[in-house]
């Protein structure tokens, strides 16, 4: 339901985000894949090279949004309780950042430091329950290099502007109220060995 994240993220935003923005990435990715197949069959190397940017942008947009939806849970639902839903991840966050509150402040600072459009990520490196890092990606670049995205936040304006206007900090502060810690715990505990979790 597009209403599931109210009042943190409005029904209007979720409807547009799903049916317009994410769908556009899917449509454009499919078109790029068809063009790639045609160019490959024709051994058209210049066209293959020109298609790569479209594949990265639209493929990344599809991957990032698919992960983002799974990162979210209805406001007030059991999945938003980190202590009950993600005990191992919570302990790791406390060990690395001192407390969950200090972690969310560090993540928030990363999100607010992004210039233009992009994503902020908590990633796991080095296998199940590996080292945690905070990273950002530009535009729709996905997380790569053996890092597993545990938690991602969309910082494109279409993710919040209709509700929060220019109050980006308000969106960043409230997003924690709809984080699906069950999903985050699963990604963290499976680590790189659980990469199949990320197949769409």
TrEMBL record:
Its cofactor is Mn(2+). Residues 88-187 form the Manganese/iron superoxide dismutase C-terminal domain. Residues 2-73 form the Manganese/iron superoxide dismutase N-terminal domain. Keywords: Manganese, Metal-binding, Mitochondrion, Oxidoreductase, Transit peptide. It is an enzyme of class 1 (oxidoreductase). GO terms for cellular component: mitochondrial matrix. InterPro entries: Fe/Mn_Superoxide_Dismutase, Mn/Fe_SOD, Mn/Fe_SOD_BS, Mn/Fe_SOD_C, Mn/Fe_SOD_N, Mn/Fe_SOD_N_sf, SOD_C_sf. Destroys radicals which are normally produced within the cells and which are toxic to biological systems. Belongs to the iron/manganese superoxide dismutase family. This is Superoxide dismutase. It comes from Aspergillus homomorphus (strain CBS 101889).
């Amino acid at each position: 339901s597009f209403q599931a994240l109210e009042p943190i993220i409005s029904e209007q935003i979720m409807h547009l985000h799903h049916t317009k923005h994410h769908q556009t990435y899917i449509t454009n990715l499919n078109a790029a894949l068809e063009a790639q197949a045609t160019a490959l069959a024709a051994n058209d190397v210049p066209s293959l090279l020109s298609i790569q940017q479209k594949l990265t942008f639209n493929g990344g947009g599809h991957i990032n949004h698919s992960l983002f939806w799974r990162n979210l849970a209805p406001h007030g639902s059991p999945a938003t309780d980190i202590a009950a839903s993600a005990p191992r991840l919570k302990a790791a966050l406390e060990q690395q950042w001192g407390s969950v509150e200090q972690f969310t402040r560090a993540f928030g600072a990363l999100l607010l430091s992004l210039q233009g459009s992009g994503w902020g990520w908590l990633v796991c490196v080095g296998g199940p329950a590996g080292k945690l890092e905070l990273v950002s990606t530009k535009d729709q670049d996905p997380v790569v290099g053996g890092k597993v995205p545990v938690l991602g936040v969309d910082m494109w304006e279409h993710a919040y502007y209709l509700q929060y206007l220019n109050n980006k900090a308000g969106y960043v502060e409230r997003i924690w109220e709809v984080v699906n810690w069950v999903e985050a715990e699963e990604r963290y505990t499976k680590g790189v060995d659980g990469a199949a979790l990320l197949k769409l």
